[in-house]
Amino acid sequence: MQTDIDPRSLIGRKAFDRDGHKIGTVDEVYLDDATGQPEWAAVRTGLFSRDAFVPLEPSTVVENTLRVPYDRALIKDAPDFGVGRHLSPEQELQLYHHYGLDIGSPGPSPCSGAGT
């Protein structure tokens, strides 16, 4: 993700999938505990819906929107952990597997919410 953007500035931005379909609005940003870098965003997928976690790498910010390079159906099927709580290493691992991402280290660092 673009590192020159304050993670808190993502909150409230619209999020779109790889095909340009609206996913929802960024509700929270989760930082990696070890690095402090933004790692996940919780996107509110609808008025009465839930938040879906999306990876911020390899997502990009384009014209004040978050562009997530995954299909909307995959995003909406992401594991639901609720927002406002710390992601456990097991939850983060589930998200990595769901999106087919490499962990990049022997074990994922838990993430903490940085927004709202």
UniProtKB/TrEMBL annotation:
InterPro entries: Bac_photo_RC_H_C (IPR014747), PRC-brl_dom (IPR027275), PRC_barrel-like_sf (IPR011033). It holds the Pfam family PRC. Residues 8-72 form the PRC-barrel domain. It comes from the Bacteria. Coiled coil: none annotated. This is PRC-barrel domain-containing protein. The lineage of its organism: Bacteria, Bacillati, Actinomycetota, Actinomycetes, Kitasatosporales.
